Amino acid sequence: MEYTGNATSLSGNNTLCHVTIDDFRNKVYSTLYCMITILGFVGNGFVLCVLIKTFQQKTAFQIYMLNLAVSDLLCVCTLPLRVVYYVHRGNWFFGDFLCRISSYAFYVNLYCSILFMTAMSFSRCMAIVFPVQNLNLVTEKKAKLACLGIWIFVTLTSSPFLLSGSYQEGNKTKCFEPPKSNQMNDLLVLHFIALFVGFIIPFSVITICYAMIIRTLLKNSLKKNQTTRKKAIWMIIIVTSAFLVSFTPYHIQRTIHLYFLKKTDSSCEAILFMQKSVVITLSLAASNCCFDPLLYFFSGGNFRRRLSTFRKASSSSVIQGPRKKLSLKEKDEEPLQESHK
């Protein structure tokens, strides 16, 4: 659903625009995708290394974070292909298969990120609001099953994006270009399924979870320790920021744009403005890869202790056996009893 081609191809009516946003599109995409690639690869790669090195200390939160980092890295690995495409003014050099995979990976990451954030928010909510029930509801095994379910659901429901590949236009090979007019009805159906299942429902669940967390923290401000409060507050800030910056503008703009494409009386100025908004919101959607490492740095279970363990494991030349059991103190430092199996 990347609708950023020439203005004439996007008008969907009799309006002919001789001015295009090609230069704007190529500069913005190549610059922002390059920045997101660097930040996303460094941040998520580091988180993944720490989580793998300290995997014997796994909790439900860490399992969600591990899967989130993998999803981000898979997406980030395809962004350099987009950078090359836009640097060369919309000419694709990498074959039809990688064109399909690049589009597919973007949307798999987008909705995996939303659903993993929802799962982590629900997990943290249960730990704070229902600490006793949490011992059975939020476990390592159930977190693994939830992650497996999310991967299967998103990869299958995103499969229609594999149908859109590269094609020849003049002397250039195109990818990520606007849909044909005869595809609009199918895209509308796909869009509303993704909108409700992949955005509105998860966002509603997250909003309810955070309202319950805030209410509980305010009621029990003296009972909850400062570490618990900080983790919960940081999660609320980071996830809410990701939705406000990355997910919400993109889904709102995509809904408006799909209906805009069906209009027959749009002015050239309106068409160009709509195209530029697509470029901005799509870039913001891709930036979700940069938000996700912050969840682990600020809201995960005792990041500094895990980092210390990671450094010792990396610098030591002697192979040491894994720790069989966390100490009582370390368990208390894990995110809100989520280490129970």
UniProtKB/TrEMBL annotation:
<feature type="transmembrane region" description="Helical">
    <location>
        <begin position="64"/>
        <end position="88"/>
    </location>
</feature>
<keyword id="KW-1133">Transmembrane helix</keyword>
<keyword id="KW-0807">Transducer</keyword>
<dbReference type="GO" id="GO:0005886">
    <property type="term" value="C:plasma membrane"/>
</dbReference>
<dbReference type="GO" id="GO:0006935">
    <property type="term" value="P:chemotaxis"/>
</dbReference>
<dbReference type="GO" id="GO:0007166">
    <property type="term" value="P:cell surface receptor signaling pathway"/>
</dbReference>
<keyword id="KW-0325">Glycoprotein</keyword>
<feature type="transmembrane region" description="Helical">
    <location>
        <begin position="232"/>
        <end position="252"/>
    </location>
</feature>
<feature type="transmembrane region" description="Helical">
    <location>
        <begin position="30"/>
        <end position="52"/>
    </location>
</feature>
<keyword id="KW-0812">Transmembrane</keyword>
<feature type="compositionally biased region" description="Basic and acidic residues">
    <location>
        <begin position="327"/>
        <end position="341"/>
    </location>
</feature>
<feature type="region of interest" description="Disordered">
    <location>
        <begin position="318"/>
        <end position="341"/>
    </location>
</feature>
<keyword id="KW-1015">Disulfide bond</keyword>
<dbReference type="GO" id="GO:0006816">
    <property type="term" value="P:calcium ion transport"/>
</dbReference>
<keyword id="KW-0297">G-protein coupled receptor</keyword>
<feature type="transmembrane region" description="Helical">
    <location>
        <begin position="108"/>
        <end position="133"/>
    </location>
</feature>
<feature type="domain" description="G-protein coupled receptors family 1 profile">
    <location>
        <begin position="43"/>
        <end position="296"/>
    </location>
</feature>
<protein>
    <recommendedName>
        <fullName>Cysteinyl leukotriene receptor 1</fullName>
    </recommendedName>
</protein>
<dbReference type="GO" id="GO:0003158">
    <property type="term" value="P:endothelium development"/>
</dbReference>
<dbReference type="InterPro" id="IPR004071">
    <property type="entry name" value="Cyst_leuk_rcpt"/>
</dbReference>
<dbReference type="InterPro" id="IPR017452">
    <property type="entry name" value="GPCR_Rhodpsn_7TM"/>
</dbReference>
<keyword id="KW-0472">Membrane</keyword>
<feature type="transmembrane region" description="Helical">
    <location>
        <begin position="145"/>
        <end position="167"/>
    </location>
</feature>
<dbReference type="GO" id="GO:0004974">
    <property type="term" value="F:leukotriene receptor activity"/>
</dbReference>
<dbReference type="GO" id="GO:1903409">
    <property type="term" value="P:reactive oxygen species biosynthetic process"/>
</dbReference>
<dbReference type="InterPro" id="IPR013310">
    <property type="entry name" value="CLT1_recept"/>
</dbReference>
<dbReference type="GO" id="GO:0051649">
    <property type="term" value="P:establishment of localization in cell"/>
</dbReference>
<feature type="transmembrane region" description="Helical">
    <location>
        <begin position="272"/>
        <end position="298"/>
    </location>
</feature>
<dbReference type="GO" id="GO:0002437">
    <property type="term" value="P:inflammatory response to antigenic stimulus"/>
</dbReference>
<keyword id="KW-1003">Cell membrane</keyword>
<dbReference type="Pfam" id="PF00001">
    <property type="entry name" value="7tm_1"/>
</dbReference>
<dbReference type="InterPro" id="IPR000276">
    <property type="entry name" value="GPCR_Rhodpsn"/>
</dbReference>
<keyword id="KW-0675">Receptor</keyword>
<feature type="transmembrane region" description="Helical">
    <location>
        <begin position="187"/>
        <end position="211"/>
    </location>
</feature>
